[in-house]
Amino acid sequence: MYKLYYMPGACSRAIHALLLDLGQPVELIARDSVADFQEINPTNQVPVLVDGDLVLREGAAIVLHLLNKHGDAEQQGAIEQQAEFNQWLMFANATLHPAYSLLFFASRGLETEAAKEEVLQKAAARVSGLWNIVEQRLTERSVVCGDKVSAVDMMLAVYANWGNYFPLDIQLGENTHRLLQRVAEYPAFAQAVEAEEAVAA
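^ Glutathione S-transferase family protein, sequence as received from the core. Prediction below:
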C-alpha cells in the first residue's frame, strides 16, 4: 500500500485522486500530523509518496511513476501522446504552480500593503495569462490530453481552486470552467475531495 503525505486542498489532492483512479490503495497522512516532516521532505512540501523503499517528493515525478507502474495503454499512449502529456504535466507543475506560489508569497511574505498589492496584481495577470493558454488548448477538446480526465486536468482543478484565497480577478474562460466542472464530477477526484473534507470535519 502506498503512503501519501498530504494537506487539504494542496496539490497532493491530484495525486490522491490519481491513486483512486488507478485503483491503488493508499494510506493518507496529514503533513501537519508529522512533527519531523522536514526529515521526510526538506522543502516541507506535499505531496510525498512512499512506495516501499522509494520516497518521491515532486508531484510530476509521482504522476509519472504511478502511470508507469499502473497506467493502462490508453493513458500511456503512443510516444507522441506521452510526450504531449508530459509537456502539459510540466506546464501544470513547473509553470502554473509557481505562478500561484508567487501569489501566496506576496500575500504572506511582503510587509507593506503597497508592495503586496503591486506583486499580487502582477502575479494575478501572469496566472490569468497562463489560464488563457489552457483555454486555447480546450477550444476543440474537452480535456487537456487524451479522451478522459487525466492527472493534468486534476492538477489544474486543484490550482484553479487556489484563486479563492485571494481577492483578485483571475480570468478563467468558458472552456476552462467546463473542464473544471467535469473534473469536479469525476468520481476519483470527487472521492478524494470527500475524503479530505471528512478528515477535516
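Residues 38 and 44 are 5 Å apart (CA to CA).
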